[in-house]
Structure formats: structure tokens, C-alpha cells
Amino acid sequence: MSEKDNILHQQTSESGPSSGSEPPYDLIRDCIAQNRVAQKKLYDRYAPLLYGMVKRYVYNTGQADEILNDAFYKILTGLSGYTSKGSFEGWMRRIVINTITDNFRKYIKKEPAYKVEIETTDVHVEGDVMGKMGYKELLQLVHGLPDTQRAVFNLFVFEQLSHKEISEHLGINENNCRWHLNDARRRLKEKITSM
Predict the structure, then answer these.
(1) CATH T-level assignment (fold) for domain 127-193
(2) I need a surface site. Which of 46, 77, 151, 168 has the fewest CB within 10 A?
(3) DSSP result, 136-149
């Protein structure tokens, strides 16, 4: 048994055969060996979760499918690099986020760096308005944001990345990142309060 197999086997043994969302050791091993049945099982198990993540960023179904396929290609071809430190799902989520941001970088217009420091402001929306909205309605509002604002908003709110990390992912200035987040919040507040 190789060192990689030992690490995977220890992790699986410690957490039980398949606790929570962690895949069994045998499934990962078979995927690394390029067993198509195992790869299909891994895809079927995690595609719905990861596709939901992609759809927060991209509302075009064709583009979302393409990003998911690119991400799974990276997951399956990079599986031997998974070190078993941290959760497997977290490892895959990082790959998906990187794939999404790579895609966004292709389309984000090169913007001039804002010279002024931008103050961040919290936007307050009445709780009863938010309580009446469903997930799909909120997602539709987020999808209505311009591409860069939608990407920055999702990365900041859902992935909890810092402005520095977001600016590195998207290839934009940190001040621009702050501006996009503030403008996204302002636009969402306007849309929600007008409902």
C-alpha cells in the first residue's frame, strides 16, 4: 500500500466507512485508477451539490454545465493530489471556485483601479421582507447583478473570502472589489425594498 493509500485508508478508518459526505476510500482509489464506474459514482454523488454552487454564480445553464464539467475534469485528473487534509468536499469546492473565477476572469472587463479608498457600508433590509422571499427569488435577484458584482458578492458572502483573496481570484484591484460589493448590496437592497 502506497503512502497516499495509507493516508486515505487512515482517514476513512478513523471516520468510519463513509461518514457524512466523505467518499469511501475505495471510491477515491478507484477514481485515481481511472475506473469509469467509480468516476461516475463520484460525479453522481457530488454533481448536484457542486452544480448548485455554480448556479449561484452563473445563471446561463449552458455556461454552468461547462463550468461544472471543467471542474470535474480538474477534480478527477487532480485526485491523486488530494492530501486527505481537510474535507474532500472542501477540496472539491475550492476547485469549483477556482474554475468559476477563471471563467469570470475571461469576461471581466479590465477596469481602471479606483484611486480613492471606498468605505464599506452595511445595508439593512427589514426582516419581514426577507422572510417572505424564497431562495429562488433571492437567487434571481443576485443573478440580476452585473457579472463582476455578482462574482464579488457571491465570493464575499457565500465563500467568505477576503477582498484581497477575491481581487486575486478575479484579477481586479482590492478597491474595485470593495466598490463592486457595496454596489451589489445597494442594488439588492433597492430591488428587495421595491418588492
Answers:
(1) Arc Repressor Mutant, subunit A (1.10.10)
(2) 77
(3) HHHHHHHHTS-HHH
Distances (CA, A) of 179 to 6, 73, 119, 152, 170: 47, 34, 8, 10, 14
Q: Is the dihedral of CA 130, 132, 134, 140 positive or negative?
A: negative
Give residue-wise pLDDT tens across range 151-191: 999 999 989 999 999 999 998 889 999 999 999 999 998 98
Residue type, position 100, single letter: I
Q: Which one, of 56, 86, 58, 53, lies nearest residue 72 by Cα?
A: 53
CA dihedral 65, 70, 76, 80 (to 10 degrees): -150
pTM for the predicted model, two decimal places: 0.69
Contact assessment for residue 57 and residue 154, using Cβ atoms and an 8 Å cutoff = yes
How many Å apart are CA 181 and CA 149, to the nearest integer? 6
| Cα 111 off chain centre by | 23
